[in-house]
Amino acid sequence: MSRISLPHDHGSDIEKHMDSLPKTEDFQVLSDIFRLLGDSSRLRIFWILCHCEECVINISAMMDMSSPAVSHHLKALKTGRLVVSRRDGKEVYYKAADTEQAALLHHMIEELLEIACPGSAYPSASRPT
Predict the structure, then answer these.
(1) Partners of 95 in beta bridges
(2) What is the pLDDT of residues 18-49, one digit of tens each?
(3) How is the beta sheet containing 91-96 ordered, strand by strand?
(4) d(Cα 113, Cα 5) in Å, to the nearest integer?
(5) For residue 1, what are the β-bridge partners?
(6) What is the maximum alpha-carbon separation in the chain?
(7) Which alpha helices (H) appear in 1-129, and where do they start and end?
(8) CA–CA separation, 76 vs 45, rounded Å?
(9) In angstroms, rounded to a whole number, what is the distance separating the alpha carbons of residues 11 and 67?
(10) What is d(CA 62, CA 17) in angstroms, rounded to the nearest whole number?
């Protein structure tokens, strides 16, 4: 990236960091990931699948949602490469993708739950690793 001269000098010396500023497209990728997790049901489904592999019917029961609604969320998570599936006969099982991205998001969710919901039923001492 070429050096730019900012119209106002606030003494922050930000210009030296402009060479390492990620591209607009990189931020779009991140925005898409956060949009995926911007739905509380989808976020809960992702969290569940970080801890176990499950079928749509069981996820529906855990979430108290219809199977079509859960399938819709799973499709979005799978398209975003946060969830993977495998077929065993007629049954399809889902789990969080085994990627650094999914692991980091899982960790972030658990840390934020602890910070934002300190009195929740999920205390840090009993958290799975």
Answers:
(1) 84
(2) 777 888 898 898 899 889 889 999 999 999 99
(3) 54-55, 91-96, 83-88
(4) 42
(5) none
(6) 65
(7) 24-36, 40-51, 56-63, 67-79, 100-116
(8) 11
(9) 56
(10) 46
- Start-to-end CA distance of the chain, whole Å, equals 41
> Which residues, 6 or more positions from 3, have their beta carbon under 8 angstroms from its beta carbon?
15, 18
- Burial (Cβ within 10 Å: 0-12, 13-18, ≥19) of residue 55: middle
Per-residue tokens: 7: 């119209």
Q: What is the pLDDT of residues 87-116, one digit of tens each?
A: 999 999 999 999 999 999 999 999 988 888
> What domains, with CATH codes, occur in the chain?
24-117 (1.10.10.10)
Question: What is the rounded distance in angstroms from the CA atom of residue 74 to the CA atom of residue 85?
Answer: 9
Question: Which residues have CB under 8 Å from 10's CB, separation 6+?
Answer: none
| HEC per residue, 85-105 | EEEECCEEEEEECCCHHHHHH
